[in-house]
Amino acid sequence: MQLNAVLNHLKPNTQKHLFTQEQTQAFFFFESATIGLPEEPHRNSTEDSISCFGLRKKSNKEKPKMTQTNAGASSGAAAATTTELPPPQPQPQTQRSEMVLHTGSLSFSSHMSREDEEMTRSALSAFRAKEDEIEKRRMEVRGRIQAQLGRVEEETRRLSTLREEIESMADPMRKEVSVVRKKIDSVNKELKPLGATVQKKEREYKEALDTFNEKNREKVQLITKLMEMEQLVGESEKLRMKKLEELSKSIEETV
Q: Count of alpha carbons within 13 Å of 68, Cβ hemisphere only?
């Protein structure tokens, strides 16, 4: 009867934690035997690290097995103690067992919730610490790289200055020659457009000269034609004068 009452009282808790009938019986004896003991200590850093790497579900699944084994051992001890004690009255024992089961389930659930919160907090703190450490290392590496880049730039500048000094020592007139060459290059650059303009002007001059020669030829041709016309006009005037003389003679004869 006592066991049936305990099982009826543990039905909602069995649905929540997925305990079997044998586990609930063992849990009852374990709680009745260890009601005067202190609470279980908190998890250490290794358990927190296990929860950080995603093994939290596995540890939660393995808890009922551990409680079952501990409950089996405690049930043996409780059975040994109950065999020695005289049989108590039925009603107070049932009330006591119900109270023990109720308090045990509450303490178990509160202990589990506390452990879960502590595990999540420790996981978050470990994750943040790792992120901070990674950020610090990244900034240190960045600073080192920037320092090395600055050194490389300084070394390149020094090398360029040293190269110029070595070149000046090898050929002291090299700078003057380079200056003269630069001037020659600039003059050549200026002469190129001037040469192009000169060639253009030469073409224009040739074209103008050709047109001038053509016009002169036309002028000569026109002059020759004018001379011919003057000769023709002179001949025609002579003929007219002859005709006029003949007419005047004929008129005189008739008179």
A: 13
